[in-house]
User: Fold these one by one.
Assistant:
Number 1:
Amino acid sequence: MGPLKLARMAWSNLWRQRRRTIITISSIAFACFLAVFMIGLNDGSWGPVIDTAARIGGGHVTVQHPDYQDKPALNRTVTGTGQLVERLRSVPHVSHVLPRIVGQAMLSTTSESMGAGFVAYDPAQEGPATLSILDAVSAGELFKTADDRGIILGWRLARNLGAELGTKVVYTLTDKKGEIVSGLARVSGLVRTNSPAVDLGLCFLPIGAVRRTLGYAPDEAVQVAVFVDNYRRSDEVAAAVKGVLDDKTTALTWKESQPDLDTFIIMKRGGGAFFSALILILCAAGIFNTLFVSVMERLREFGVLMAIGFNAGRLFGLVMLESLWLGLIGLVAGAILLAGPYYYLSTVGLDLTKAFAAGEQQADIAGVAMSMVVKMDLHHTSAIAIASIVMGATLLSGLYPAWKAGRVEPVESIKLV
Amino acid sequence: MTTTDSVPIVEVQGVKKVYRQGSLEVPALRGIDLTIQPGEFTAICGPSGSGKTTLLNLIGALDKPTAGSIKIEGKELGGMTRRQLSRLRRDRIGFVFQAYNLMPVLTAYENAEIVMAVQGVAAATRQQRVMALLAEVGLQGMEKRKPLELSGGQQQRVAIARAIAANPAVVLADEPTANVDSDTADKLLAMMEQLNKQRGVTFIFSTHDPKVMARAHRLLKLVDGAVASDERRAQPAV
């Protein structure tokens, strides 16, 4: 009996206890639904968070001085950024390459002094795609040139400094020689994000003004932020970027430059995977029960098949094909069940505004602002993983019942009524 | 139709079978000697518990004797592996059970062809042979019916077609008429007799039905696990 005929027989066997089969298929479909829901929302929410982190931090891949990560200081710089940017732009999957100066500054107004982080950027080169605050300016305006005399503050930072648009702010830095240097700017804009860490602790400066203050060369920066067309390619691009660097610079992926965020995502993904595994185990127990009961009910039949020439392997194959059918139908049913909700959640998304309404309507993850609308975006590798795990669990559940079927003694089982 | 000078289909020598029930030993067969030649139409009769089914199970390689030797077409079953026994049953032995035991999910056609399908016989050959057989057993036009859509007699006809479809050396039938009315039993027996005469199929069936015994060409009577009589008839009693 060929595999096709055996598969047809397995298919027919499945529908002998229609209700039981439908319940089992429903449980597989529901497990798929939950797994896709959890992992799809995960995939959909972490992508924007990582992209936002890259837009506030140093890109998906950060090129910087080899010692900067352990001992960040403004004397650990990258020089010759003009040529370096050109070389990095030729690396496949790189979308933007931008020099930046980042560090800590002391900000003072006539009434208050506070420490804050700063990002100095070139307004001619950067847009919302590379710097997230550019679409979060709630008052004032963006810098017009790299030598602009303005400073953009997080709105909470401005409030704590007692500053408003037009207020003079002195920013004090430590230059390459370790000397204290200062620059003067007027508040030209305020940003309001969903991240308390940004709104309270970050300011933005034009890169030309900061270079002058620090005594940097025109092609000198603390980092070169490299943006990738898809954050999942960060590792691959970082490896390629390292290939074009000399030993005075190194390249870090966002996971290395922002380990807090990476750890947080790993923990959340681990939690999601744990719950998915739990659902899958419960589902596998149901499938096992269906197949085992179905085998025990058909011992006599298996005995007859053994008597007329089936061998243990063929009976094992028959039951395994039944579990294969269960898994495949369950996956198809799961896909049908998911189609509508997936379309809605991937286009409209899940609006979390109300969930945060009672609080301060702001949320961040490891200091990175999180969008209030989470859209589902199941990556194809996650979809393949879910399908493979569901099929694997289904087939695994069928192993013992199939083995049991193959061990039937015809002379004993044919006696059964 | 009996040919006495060819290799016997079945040779049973000194076969004993003892079942254990806890510490108790229950002898089912107490030393059976039996030879069945190709083309024989043999009935094994005897009261309940006399060992008829046990003997058929042993000849059919479904069970192993406690002592003695069984050969099918000269091949000793004793040293065979599970796989070899399975192949022997598939290729050389046909089974007809009292309760028909057809696969409920398969049609009459599929049930009849299942052994050939397992053997790997080409689809066209299977179709030709099964259609002819189903017509021969009077089931033309019922090929697509499933067992539940057939009467008991019709199901047993399908079972007989299944048993002989792969041209086995011997067909073992355990009380083949026990679950059908006497009219249907007559028709089934007439059909088996016809298959025996026209195709030379060797039949061994167990029975305690006097009508069946009367049609047998050879009647073997078992009492308490031993052969009480072995009667050969030039012409059946009916």
Number 2:
Amino acid sequence: MVTRHIVGAHYGLKDWIAQRATAVYMALFTLAFVACTLCLPELDYLSWRALFSSALIQFFGFLFALSLFYHVWIGVRDIWMDYVKPVGLRLALHLVTLFLLIGYAAWVARILWRLQA
Amino acid sequence: MSKRTVQFKIYRYDPDKDAAPYMQDISVELEPSDKKLLDALVRLKAKDDSIAFRRSCREGVCGSDAMNINNKNGLACLTDIDSLKQPIVLRPLPGLPVIRDLIVDMTQFFKQYHSIKPYLINDDPPPERERLQSPEEREELNGLYECILCACCSTACPSFWWNPDKFVGPSGLLNAYRFIADTRDQATSERLDNLDDPYRLFRCHTIMSCVDVCPKSLNPTRAIGKIKDLMVRRAV
């Protein structure tokens, strides 16, 4: 069988922008979150819980998790693309990664929003 | 200056004779006029004519004598012998198939170069004298047209090692931008389409090994950044 090398998938720019945008958002959120944590009256369970009960932290924290997972998706997919050559195995790994990350996102949502102020 | 002896450790492989590559320890006595690594290699070749390497212009213009010198890609003809730690370890350019000793098969490298259509595309009938550019427009091509296609950069790039058949590589992308940036070229959009691919362009993760090794001090990473910049401006 003749193996032809085929390129020209016509995607990549969107992911490249997303990887940078999510990185910037994660950096900003991390700084803000550390600042919030330092402003807590006491670093115990109750104030930690109160911090996560605030709608702002839930909203921006969930965005942080989504950014992280999208960032991870692009990065891990790049690793599969570089090192896993059999196309079937690579596709399977892409799907496993994608499903895991979607599952994690749902899990984060459940953990964050079950807390009530 | 007196004569001096230089120690080498050279990658040897002749597929017709050797079962596997090996490193050969060899030394050579230099004349006072020998300044560059290539001078020493020519002396070495006179001593043991089975050593194979490419060279041509001996002044950093043809790009033939690119090799891995003490674990860094460079041109033998531009590298001062006295600047190198001994024994000088010479290997072929990494990531390309070895034909013999320090000679590699550059087919894959040139396939990628050809894939970016390295020539001016302009369907207008040629003017009587020449297609003119303003000094500013011409200025943009500086740092791009000087590439001598020695492959030092592409073979220093891990992304090119993993996907030489799919990733264009720093040299190819620098040359791609050379034509994208040329105001006389009319195929800018097609050129960007040709590169909008997770492998062809976006395997570059900006680690800048290409910039580190380029013997002509060019900056493929900056050119790649400008290609991405144009793509963003086209899409957003």
